Amino acid sequence: MTTPTSSPEPGPAKNPRQLLKDLQETFPVFRDCLPLAIGIDKQLLLRQPGLDRKPLRIALGIHTHSLRYLKTVERSAERVDLDGNPAGEITPAHRSHASEVLKERLQKQAEQRRAQREAEALARQHAEKLGQLIEKFGRNK
Fold first, then answer.
1. How far apart are CA 49 and CA 86, in angstroms?
2. In degrees rounded to 5, what are phi and psi of residue 52?
3. Which of 30, 75, 85, 127 is the right S-S partner for 23, CB 3.0 to 4.6 Å?
4. How many Cβ atoms are within 10 Å of 107's Cβ, its own excluded?
5. Exposed e or buried b for every residue in 65-94, given b needs 16+ CB within 10 A?
6. How would you label 30-51 residue by residue, b for 16+ Cβ within 10 Å and e otherwise?
């Protein structure tokens, strides 16, 4: 029989992705991908004291690095708190950072798609060449 060393967490699951889903269901600012106020993690910990800091930070990182969130930050002028009230402006530096990250990520995705298409074309050429060699040197003549 084992005795627990710490009390089980009463709040949302420790899985950051599940925590993010819970936050999206609870707070419209997460669901709508609105630019979050600086220090939103402290607001969340005050409202939901059972949250574990580490999964919360990971969940916030997943959310704030999503393409949808970055696009919103790039186009918006103000940040919002958990209730959707204005909570400060988005600085030009933050807006420009979001634009740069978006540009880099979209460029990387385009390069990956291009490399995938090239690999598929090379595989097709290889298969055609093998087919031609089988026709030419096959034993079914």
1. 23
2. -90, 130
3. 30
4. 10
5. eeeebbebbbebeebbbbeeeebeebeeeb
6. beebbbbbeebbebbeeebeeb
| Six-digit token string for 36 | 């979050």
Q: Which of 63, 91, 64 is nearest to 76 (CA)?
A: 91
Distance between CA atoms of 4 and 122, rounded to whole angstroms? Answer: 58
C-alpha to C-alpha distance for 113 and 107, rounded to whole angstroms: 10
Which region holds residue 88: left if phi is over 0, alpha if psi is between -120 and 50, else beta?
left
**pTM higher than the cut 0.70:** no
The number of beta carbons lying within 10 Å of the beta carbon of residue 59 is 25
Residue 2 one-letter amino acid: T
Residue 90: both structure tokens together = 């988005």
Model confidence at 110, pLDDT cuts 50, 70, 90, reads: very high
pLDDT computed for residue 4 by the predictor:
42
